[in-house]
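Exercise 7. Given the encoded structure of a 405-residue chain, write a plausible sequence.
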């Protein structure tokens, strides 16, 4: 434990980056929850609230890959800074905008800008930390993200009720400006591929195509992305459909539904903690074990009739998904060439978003046709197939430390 914490504490650039990112994540979550409450209070329409989710989902599908092109072309540090500043200004505008339709435009725009931040952050970590402490850094980020998910909704409700929607938007604006200032103070090394000029309007398309070719030619990266998309396709709608599972199969209450959501979040935190202290287990072993655990837990959920067993299984789902997320990020950061790292993470984000949308849409329709139990069985089978593909095709080169162990 001392060694792992020391790797991060000794790198103050990463600690500043992590603190800035965590507080802006908290501000964003509080703002989005308060926005949902505000829109519902003004419209009394569930559809109006649902459109917010659509506004957040569309950008990734439309422009996600090209965000990776920008990240690989320009300074990743400045991509993150500009992304934070633009989002700060957008939420500041939201604070003083009475128009509900304008909220959808702002949410769409802020999500669009955020697409540039995420791959830039993931691609910057190897430049800040090297290859040695990536797993610990990704685990720490995931633990803080899950804590934000656990604490944020309660804070959002309190802040919205006590101080109002405008205050919440201004609070979020401040967190983004703080994050931008923190990132600006970090000396992130430039890559040799930055600041290349685009000689024609076709250059972004050519860069995107070249990124796809690089991904396709790298067997490890290709199959990691394919199996991750399979996992998202199978498990994407599980938590969304949990309310149907609780009501129809467990005959449970709203309180039980809330407990299941909390169990999943707690499981995700535990998964990040377990990854931090994975010991001598190789990344390949963690990846395959997590796929198998996720697939089997989904199959067992479909057969479950007891609330306490369901809570345990949903916690395992949270653990498994987090183990997969952290390990996949670390593997890509270690084994993808820095020249295409932004496009790789952007492509993974697009594939994941498409898989989740397909999973949610198809899962909801199939739940009405064949029942929620059959949907969970199908989800488990899909994830188990992803596990088989990972076992067959994902062969991760061991690091020096792992060979020594």
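Solution.
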């Amino acid at each position: 434990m001392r060694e792992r914490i020391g790797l991060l504490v000794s790198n103050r650039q990463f600690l500043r980056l992590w603190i800035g990112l965590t507080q802006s994540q908290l501000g964003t979550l509080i703002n989005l929850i308060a926005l949902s409450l505000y829109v519902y209070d003004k419209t009394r329409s569930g559809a109006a609230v649902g459109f917010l989710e659509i506004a957040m989902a569309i950008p990734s599908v439309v422009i996600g890959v090209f965000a990776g092109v920008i990240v690989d072309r320009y300074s990743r540090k400045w991509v993150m800074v500009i992304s934070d500043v633009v989002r700060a200004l957008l939420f500041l505008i939201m604070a003083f905008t009475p128009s509900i339709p304008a909220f959808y435009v702002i949410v769409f725009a802020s999500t669009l800008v955020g697409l540039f931040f995420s791959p830039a952050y993931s691609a910057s970590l190897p430049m800040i930390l090297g290859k040695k402490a990536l797993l610990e850094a990704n685990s720490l980020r995931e633990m803080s993200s899950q804590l934000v998910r656990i604490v944020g909704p309660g804070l959002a409700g309190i802040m919205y009720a006590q101080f109002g929607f405008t205050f919440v938007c201004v609070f979020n604006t401040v967190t983004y400006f703080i994050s931008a200032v923190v990132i600006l103070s970090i000396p992130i090394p430039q890559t040799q591929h930055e600041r290349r000029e685009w000689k024609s309007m076709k250059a972004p398309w050519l860069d995107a195509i070249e990124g796809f070719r690089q991904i396709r030619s790298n067997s490890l990266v290709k199959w990691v992305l394919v199996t991750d998309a399979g996992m998202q396709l199978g498990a994407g709608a599980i938590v969304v459909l949990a309310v149907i599972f609780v009501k129809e199969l467990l005959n449970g209450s709203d309180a039980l539904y809330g407990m299941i959501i909390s169990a999943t979040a707690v499981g995700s935190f535990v998964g990040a903690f377990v990854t931090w202290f994975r010991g001598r287990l190789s990344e390949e072993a963690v990846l395959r074990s997590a796929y198998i655990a996720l697939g089997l837990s989904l199959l067992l959920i479909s057969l479950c009739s007891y609330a306490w067993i369901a809570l345990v299984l949903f916690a395992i789902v949270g653990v498994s998904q987090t183990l997969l997320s952290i390990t996949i990020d670390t593997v890509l950061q270690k084994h993808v060439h820095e020249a295409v790292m932004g496009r790789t993470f952007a492509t993974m984000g697009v594939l994941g978003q498409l898989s989740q949308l397909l999973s949610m849409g198809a899962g909801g329709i199939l739940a009405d046709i064949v029942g929620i139990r059959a949907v969970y069985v199908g989800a488990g089978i899909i994830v188990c197939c992803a596990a088989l593909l990972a076992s067959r095709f994902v062969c991760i080169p061991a690091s020096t430390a792992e060979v020594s162990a």
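Remark. The two ends are 17 Å apart (CA to CA). Students should compare their own answers with the one above.
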